[in-house]
Design brief:
The protein is an alpha+beta fold and 423 residues long. Helix content is 42%, strand content 21%. The protein is built from 13 helices and 19 strands.
Length: 423
């Protein structure tokens, strides 16, 4: 969330930038400032009351010691009143702080100056394209039909076991899935990311820290008995590794990668755009997360983009990169690049990765700070990206690598699969 001091010092800039998201922040920022002023002034009254009460308590001790009990008892009555007043003021401070925090949760992150205004995905800006779109035969099939033909993914069996959106990978399909996970993790660790295995269930504080709550509670599976949430992405547990931490400036950059299943309660719409692997309730993803010095975070963002480019170049898949407009940028992100893979059989672009800089927005929620060389404390910057989400990458491989004799396996994956064709 945004810092109150940042809001006070940059009110007009924030209002103007949030217009890119079609978010009118005028009234909510005014309310934030008013609540903070109230909290501060009440805190001053509380501190003064406490100080006066403490001073009188010392005087009472001296009076009793000197045998002046009558004067001491008069002051004791006053301290009782002061303690009552202090308690009331403390409650007001806490209530005001709670109201302020809840209000700050409703304000999205401020888009970077390069982010264009826009309403939806149609307003996103294409910044890069690569790869040749293969020419398939007239008999080319979409991946869900290829999966059935070669018996490598069973959507009906997944529906029987759990419901729609929970496929079962079989035989060479399961091995190809595992190969992709290993390949992505190896590429990430080679690039300097430390591999971690993290819980797939997180508590409320973790979900609040990365911004899933209170914004996206409807998309998350929740166990009410233990008050735990199934993760929608590995970003959540990995970023929370440094929640409530004070690190040194010399620790940057801190880079992690993880493989996790991801769980999302997305609404079950119908049509070809959600068939097969296009949209799932459970899917696998390899994530990269970075903690950066604020001066280096956008350089790091470009580095993450180049890293994902390198993976897709090795997979020899046609893709493009979009810089999202304000209206399509996620609630907690300051800038996001989406990678989209061209599905030849479906004749459409499919999102396969999202790489974002959250600047200090998550760090403020996480209370993640670093000390500079002068021992001053500052908020770190956090970034994350998919490297990569597996379902649509797998779909793209099945569709773009299909031949009359079977589905070829990309050269870079053969050492992981142990086979070069699915037939």
């Amino acid at each position: 969330m945004l810092q109150v001091q940042f809001i006070k010092e940059n009110t007009e800039l924030i209002i103007e930038r949030l217009k890119k998201r079609n978010f009118d922040a005028t009234s909510v920022l005014k309310e934030v400032i008013a609540l903070d002023d109230k909290r501060r002034s009440t805190q001053v009254l509380f501190d003064d009351t406490q100080a006066e009460s403490n001073k009188l308590s010392k005087e009472i001790g001296v009076l009793f010691k000197n045998g002046e009990a009558q004067k001491a008892n008069l002051l004791k009555e006053k301290t009782v009143q002061l303690k009552g007043k202090a308690k009331e003021l403390s409650e007001i401070v806490n209530q005001t702080q709670a109201a302020l925090t809840e209000l700050l949760y409703t304000i999205p992150n401020v888009p970077h100056e390069l982010v264009k205004a826009g309403t939806n995905e149609e307003d996103n800006e294409e910044v890069f394209t690569a790869g040749e779109i293969p020419v398939l035969s007239e008999n080319a099939l979409p991946h869900w039909e290829l999966a059935k033909k070669y018996d490598i993914i069973d959507f009906e069996l997944g529906n029987k076991i759990s419901g729609a959106g929970f496929p079962v990978y079989k035989g060479k399909g399961a091995r190809l899935q595992r190969a992709l996970i290993s390949y992505f993790l190896d590429k990430n660790t080679e690039a300097g990311y430390t591999e971690v295995q993290v819980p797939h269930l997180v508590n409320e504080a973790s979900a609040i820290g990365t911004g899933q709550l209170p914004d996206k509670e409807g998309q998350m599976y929740h166990d009410a008995q233990d008050d735990l949430y199934l993760i929608p992405t590995g970003e959540v547990p990995v970023t929370n590794i440094l929640r409530d931490e004070l690190i040194s400036e010399s620790d940057f950059p801190i880079c992690y990668t993880t493989y996790t299943p991801c769980f999302r309660r997305e609404a079950g719409s119908y049509g070809a755009h959600v068939r097969g692997l296009n949209r799932l309730h459970q899917f696998d993803k390899v994530e990269i997360v970075r903690f950066e010095h604020p001066d280096k975070s956008y350089e790091a963002l470009e580095g993450m983009v180049d890293h994902v480019k390198g993976i897709l170049a090795e997979l020899k898949l046609p893709y493009r990169i979009l810089r999202l407009c304000g209206g399509d940028t996620g609630f907690v992100a300051a800038m996001t690049y989406d990678f989209e893979l061209f599905s030849t059989a479906q004749d459409r672009w499919l999102e396969i990765s999202s790489v974002s800089n959250f600047e200090a927005y998550q760090a403020n929620r996480l209370k993640l700070r670093y000390k500079d060389e002068n021992n001053k404390k500052h908020l770190a910057h956090t970034l994350n990206g998919s490297a990569l989400a597996l379902p649509r990458v797998l779909a793209g491989i099945l569709e773009n690598y299909q031949t009359p004799n079977g589905i070829k396996v990309p050269d870079c994956l053969v050492k992981y699969t142990g086979f070069d064709i699915i037939n």
